[in-house]
């Protein structure tokens, strides 16, 4: 059996609500522990902001192309597995001048797990059994039981690294 590396991308808002401030730090500590125990090969953290404008006529790179591309991949993954990503919500916004535009609201925290370079799980997501949260997915990785809506693959790895990245994808 081929052992394929597991990587995790964690997306957090830059301005989390006061009650959630400790959660990203605790989650990052758990990811570090997963690297140390060999359950995952590496992780990356991206600071996203609360929402990103969905481009209409402007080039997407000016409006958070990275985040929009990742969420498009998440939606494809969800459609293939019959799960939903309710936390990634599109809505129309109006300005005081009457201008209307569409934004993609982002969850306080989201996790994308990849196995061998292929997207294997996104949290939060809703399944027939309920919601799989970021905490649920981390618990599964810590147990290494593969529980949750992801592909069945052997996910252990000998290489252990961790990194932290910032990515600003909010509209100024």
What does this protein look like?
It is a single chain. This protein has one domain. Helix content is 24%, strand content 27%. It has helices spanning 22-36, 65-81, 134-143; strands spanning 6-12, 42-47, 51-53, 89-94, 100-105, 109-115, 118-123, 125-127, 130-132. The strands form three sheets. Strands 2-1-6-7 form a four-stranded mixed beta sheet, with helices on both faces. A three-stranded antiparallel beta sheet has the order 3-5-4, with no helix packed on it. α1 runs parallel beside α3. It is elongated. The chain starts with 5 loop residues before the first strand and ends in a 29-residue tail after the last helix.
Summarize this structure as a short list of keywords or feature phrases.
three-stranded antiparallel beta sheet, alpha+beta, about 170 residues, 9 strands
- Helix run count: 3
Overall body shape: elongated
Distance between the termini: 48 Å
- Tally the structural domains: 1
Run of helices and strands: EHEEHEEEEEEH
Largest sheet: 4 strands, mixed
pLDDT < 50 stretches: 151-172
Rg estimate, integer Å: 17 Å
What is the mean predicted local confidence, pLDDT?
80
Share of residues in strands? 25-35%
Structural class: alpha+beta
Q: What is the number of E strands?
A: 9
Q: Percent of residues in helical segments?
A: 10-25%
Q: Identify the strand order in the major beta sheet.
A: 2-1-6-7
């Amino acid at each position: 059996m081929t052992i394929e590396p597991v990587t995790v991308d964690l997306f957090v808002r830059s301005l989390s609500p006061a009650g959630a401030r400790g959660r990203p730090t605790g989650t990052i500590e758990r990811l570090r522990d997963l690297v140390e125990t060999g359950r995952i090969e590496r992780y990356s953290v991206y600071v996203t902001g609360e929402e990103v404008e969905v481009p209409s006529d402007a080039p997407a790179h000016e409006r958070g192309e990275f985040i929009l591309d990742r969420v498009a991949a998440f939606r494809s993954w969800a459609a293939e597995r019959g799960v939903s990503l309710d936390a990634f919500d599109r809505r129309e916004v109006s300005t005081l001048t009457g201008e209307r535009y569409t934004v993609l609201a982002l969850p306080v925290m989201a996790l994308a797990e990849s196995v061998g370079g292929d997207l294997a799980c996104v949290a939060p997501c809703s399944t027939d059994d309920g919601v799989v949260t970021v905490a649920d997915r981390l618990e599964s990785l810590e147990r290494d039981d593969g529980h949750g809506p992801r592909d069945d693959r052997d996910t252990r790895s000998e290489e252990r690294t961790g990194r932290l990245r910032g990515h600003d994808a909010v509209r100024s």
